[in-house]
Amino acid sequence: MLNHMATITSDKKLRSLIKESVREVLGTELMKLRALALPEIAMREQRDIERRYGKPSRKSVKSYSL
What we know:
Layout (H helix, E strand, L loop, with lengths): L1 H36 L5 H11 L13
């Protein structure tokens, strides 16, 4: 009986770990898809945006290369 309870607990932990991992991977892949959907802009256009609104803050904690 005790062994059966340990198996159920380890099954729950494993499922939880798998769900968390799948969410993380899906989140990463969605970020890549969103980045691909963003239009590219010319340097002149980027300078104009920075002149009008200032440079973006450097608070980003994650970056993904495509």
